[in-house]
Amino acid sequence: MTTKVEAHAPAAPPAPRRRLPPELNIFLVLIGIALVYEALGWIFVGQSFLMNPQRLTIMILQVSVIGIIAVGVTQVIITGGIDLSSGSVVGMTAMFSASVAQASTWPRALYPSLTDLPAIVPIALGVAVGLIAGIINGQLIARTKIPPFIATLGMMVSARGISKWYTKGQPVSGLTDQFNFIGTGIWPVIVFLVVALIFHVALRYTRYGKFTYAIGANPQAARVSGINIESHLVKVYAIAGMLAGLAGVVTAARAQTAQAGMGVMYELDAIAATVIGGTSLTGGVGRITGTVIGTVILGVMTSGFTFLRVDAYYQEIVKGLIIVAAVVIDVYRQKKRKV
Amino acid sequence: MISPSTMAAVRASGAVPKSEYLMTVTGVRKEFPGVVALDDVSFRLKRGTVHALMGENGAGKSTLMKILAGIYQPDKGEIKLRGVDIQLTSPLDALKNGIAMIHQELNLMPFMTIAENIWIRREPLNRFGFVDHTEMNRKTADLFARLNIKLDPQMEVRDLSIANRQMVEIAKAVSYESDVLIMDEPTSALTEREVAHLFTIIRDLRAQGIGIVYITHKMNELFEIADEFSVFRDGKYIGTHASSDVTRDDIIRMMVGREITQMFPKEEVPIGEVVLSVKNLTLDGVFRDVSFDIRAGEILGLAGLVGSGRSNVAETLFGVTPASAGTIAIDGKPVTVDSPTAAIRHRMAFLTEDRKDTGCLLILDIQENMQIAVLQDKYVKGGFVDEKAVARDCADMARKLRVKTPNLQERIENLSGGNQQKALIGRWLLTHPRILILDEPTRGIDVGAKAEIHRLVTELARTGVAVLMISSEMPEVLGMSDRVMVMHEGRVTGILDRAEATQIKVMELAAQ
């Protein structure tokens, strides 16, 4: 069903080559998927998929954490890199921030002297820990020139280890209401959209953004043009780490607890959302708007399967296929452009 | 219409119909979205001749060549191979029919040996079905003996110079027993001696009855090696002549459709104070003790054979590969140039040798390509880019440099080489450089664009820019430069004044 939209290649209007926004394709895919669920819903379940605000809210809520991560991952992938560590960083930062977000009423607080702190403290700590992880990723990649795949793979394993070591595997609970608040209601979605807006603007209208695309398009040419690639990459990975940290905070607040196993495989969902959203793994191409739509597509997929009462196993199988299909379409599109 | 496979079978049986023309193309048309690349084009290749395709970039010769090699299929028109209609569906199909193409970008696998590269897909097998390396190396040695190439078949390709890789490509094409060879600017990366060797090989092949389609921008090569040539302009076929019948000016006129009175408009411009002063610049293992001055308004040519360290000096000057010793002074003040960022801060600019590898951001648009260097320190407030101003200035610059494009939102990879080069020059002019380093500024671009770039460089010199220009084309170096510095094996062997710089003197210093 996703490939259908490809067939709709406009018959090249000759004179003014006003290009349609590349997100349009992805958006049509999203609409298409939703409509398919709608139809299947009426056939198999006897109810509407879309006309159910509660389901849609839950759906967006479920993916907003992935979306926050994906905004960072998009920037990394535009530079031609990859970040495998975000899921583990979510776990690690959830643990760290929760550990200073505990209420004094909780009998087994990790730091009894650090309870009932204002929510800004755990939030800042989580974001800072993520930022540090990102800086380490970036420094490793920029200084040692090891492939981002390896550097972030190392971080992925180590950060997960740290989150387990931090409390020797114990969950951290009894968080203050003030902290939990950012995980309630529509707040995670707002955080996601604000983050997306900020980095959409950053990528399109700032020097930071221009340099990010240039590095992904041709690192050597970017270097000769005077861009300090090393320091720029550190920035990009630092931002990705920071956003993963923010996602960790939101995850802990939503669950009102933190566990070392939080965020497992989130990095793959974030990469999937990014790629489905039209960001090219070869670098130089991609937009936040696409990633937002890609994230929503992931959400619709999952929630649609649940709605149709499809077995969770099938969900994963199909999700894998969709990710591959998105890349295949991307490759095919690039080829067509080349002629 | 005979299918390629049938054709291949006929060919294998030896019952190939004889005809004077190896290949004839009639009325070929090829359209791409928005452009007619070829319009009613005809072309004939005689047995045992070298046939040059001439034309400015974008004239359609690359498209024709790709049709001949089976990469593109024409929308209209017919192709005959040895008098028989044929439709080529892929490069492999063309190869099977005896048409081999040697690409400008070499297509060899660096981590495999020469022999493995040549016989790929056709490896001789021993009786167990494994690759017989001994036999493969022997066959390669035979092939090399025939072509008088002196290379060890067991060397890995990554250890070869560009020239030697080219030789391997040619040997590979010959190994298919092709009788049509298509060469796309084969000499663009070769030194004079290597070119001479290549020409010997081409003459041998011609004597064996092979037809060679030869694309070049270099006029002197045309007279030296080509028997016939066809000229194209804006996708149309202009004419075919024997190269002995025409003069250089005739050809240029056919190519551009207008008179080019002077190729190198050297004008005397006022020479000012020393801007850049380089003393004993050294990059360990690459070049040593390079010293020179450039004054405002002066063009210093840098000549030397490929591998003499010319480009390395440029890269070191610009901080791409920081120097291991020596000093660089600007306006008499010593400066540290340890990165391109620092070089730009000192108002240097560097047009690199390789447009694709180190110049263009191919997948980005023209404006994004032009603005990238100047955004270092201009048009940015609080991190935000002043889109309006930068778009306006890029557009002005593109217009001034006559970059041919409908708008700046076009991807730069869709431009011809000459227009890409102009856009990249624009990238640097936006930074208002005082020192401009040009490494092969006109390589692989057409005569018209070349003349424009020459005029532009002269114009910049007039405004007081100090120019260092590296070029492999002797007429360009001699025509443009106020002084010529010559390098040989990592050392400066001489700096000649304009008056004393002759082709012979420069060659003597370059070859020693």
Explain this structure.
The complex is a heterodimer of chains A (339) and B (512). With 339 residues, chain A is mostly helical. Chain A has a single domain, classed as ABC transporter involved in vitamin B12 uptake, BtuC. In chain A, 70% of the residues lie in helices and 0% in strands. In chain A, helix 4 runs parallel beside helix 6. Chain B is α/β, with parallel strands linked by helices. Chain B folds into 3 domains: 1-12 and 19-98 and 216-258, 3-Layer(aba) Sandwich (Rossmann fold), CATH 3.40.50; 272-347 and 433-512, P-loop containing nucleotide triphosphate hydrolases (Rossmann fold), CATH 3.40.50; 363-432, no CATH class. Chain B has a 6-stranded mixed beta sheet, sandwiched between helices. A 6-stranded mixed beta sheet of chain B has the order 16-19-20-13-21-22, sandwiched between helices. In chain B, strands 2-1-4-5 form a 4-stranded antiparallel beta sheet, with helices on one face. Chain B is globular, with a radius of gyration of 25 Å. Chain B starts with a helix and ends with a helix. The A-B interface holds A 12, 14, 17, 19, 205-208, 210-211, 213-214, 217-218, 220-228, 284-285, 337, 339 and B 32-34, 318, 320, 339-341, 343-344, 350, 352, 357-364, 368, 371-373, 375-376, 380, 383-385, 387, 406, 409, 411, 427. Chain A: The chain crosses the membrane at residues 24-44, 56-78, 117-136, 148-166, 186-203, 288-307. Chain A: InterPro entries: ABC_transp_permease. Chain A: Keywords: Cell inner membrane, Cell membrane, Membrane, Transmembrane, Transmembrane helix, Transport. Chain A: It is found in: Cell membrane. Chain A: It comes from Xaviernesmea oryzae.
